[in-house]
Amino acid sequence: MEQTFFTTYNPKELKKLIKQAITEINEGDSIGSSKKYEEIFFDQRQAAKFLKISLPTIIKWKKNGKIPYYQEGRKVLFNKSELLKAMHKNDSLLR
Fold it and tell me: pLDDT at residue 78 above 90?
């Protein structure tokens, strides 16, 4: 049986926890990992939902070059691992 714990964090503590989680995810995909790496791509709506931001925000970040994306014709895709790295590197996106 799982236990549920509730706690509160101030914004700085939460930001630090998010960074640690992203670092752990990235390290799990590093060289020496026995798992085969699978690329995961999101469309704009899926990426916004994944990052828990609005669709206009992700479009603005894309246009301003804050997050990497791929475009073929009208189709826009975001690589999950690249989104996580961009969030980790750019502290202002976490605010």
Answer: yes
DSSP helix/strand/coil, 50: helix
d(CA 26, CA 4): 27
pTM of this prediction?
0.58
| Residue 79, helix vs strand vs coil | strand
Closest alpha carbon to 44 in 19, 64, 67: 67
Rg (CA), the chain: 15
Q: Which domains does the chain have, with CATH numbers?
A: 38-95 (1.10.10.10)
At how many degrees (to 10) do helices 44-51 and 55-63 cross?
Answer: 110
pLDDT of amino acid 34: 44
Nearest one of 73, 47, 50 to 60, comparing CA atoms: 47
Residue 50's φ and ψ, nearest 5 degrees, are -60, -40
Task: Classify 51 as helix, strand or coil.
Answer: helix
